[in-house]
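Quick one:
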Amino acid sequence: MKRNDDGLAFLLKYENVAWYEEGVVRILDRRIYPVRIEYVTCHTHGEVAQAIGDMVTQSGGPYVAAAMGMALAAWEVRDQTGEDALAFLSGAADTLSHARPTTSARMEQITAGSLAAAQKAVAEGKLGLDLVDVLQEVAIGRIYDTYEKHAKIGSYLADVTPSKATIMTQCFAENIIGSYLRECHNRNYDIKVICPETRPYFQGARLTASVAKDMDFDVTVITDNMPGYTMKEKKVDLFTSAADVITMDGHIINKVGTFQIALCAQYWGIPYYATRNPDSAHEDLSSVVIEERNPELVLEAMGTKTTLPGVKGYYPAFDVTPPKLCDGVVTEKGIFAPTDLHRFFR
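Output:
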């Protein structure tokens, strides 16, 4: 199998994102990494959807998990007829794609691709384990193609990064940040990375910082209320984040906290680049659902209660950064102005 994960951190190796094999999907539990290295083993596609909803995997991980979950769904119906198998797979596609509301449009594209491959395979008489093999290959192809696209995004982002620079990230841009750092390494750039912790799951502290450290970069973690001061004191040259959704009119929907860091970056004259392809399913904000998660999670830190009984919490998972705060959207086709994203599809 040809791979695109060479030179990347442990967290970004194919098998450590989500992997189907012999009737199970194994997902590295990013909620506890790197304190412990444990995998959640899913025996049904419903368990995969539950793992996605429970934040076992985040950032780009759910998309891989959804594709692998479709292969697992095929395993679940390995003894059924073609018509029954396709009906089951159609239901599985809906379950997996709606595991988290904010990203459901992009997830539907993933599961629809698997479902189309299944329909073609059944029409060719492929059932049982042959159908499982088809959807496993689709999932593997998905992760390969995604990493290839991210390598291009990482290269374009490196193009606008000074050869000696301090960058600030937000949350966990998964393989995009890994590909970007690999490209910086290949160009012999001298890069320092600053990661806000990203409560309440601490993705910046546990995931982004781990990737940077694993790839031998100088990395520093700060708390989520430090970016504005740190940008000036540590002379940050560039702020970058991935995005869960980028609407066609240029709004960046990403982990809550991105908006305030983008505001600070504009104040200090620091460029902000968001990374991912725009979403044609979202012409504007009217179709975007901002997911709100369990408020109890903000009343604790890594399982330790931090408030008195009766104190309330509020946990919007994402916020919206307006296009005027973003210097460019870095895509697999190059860098586009946030107000010119329709050109990406032309």
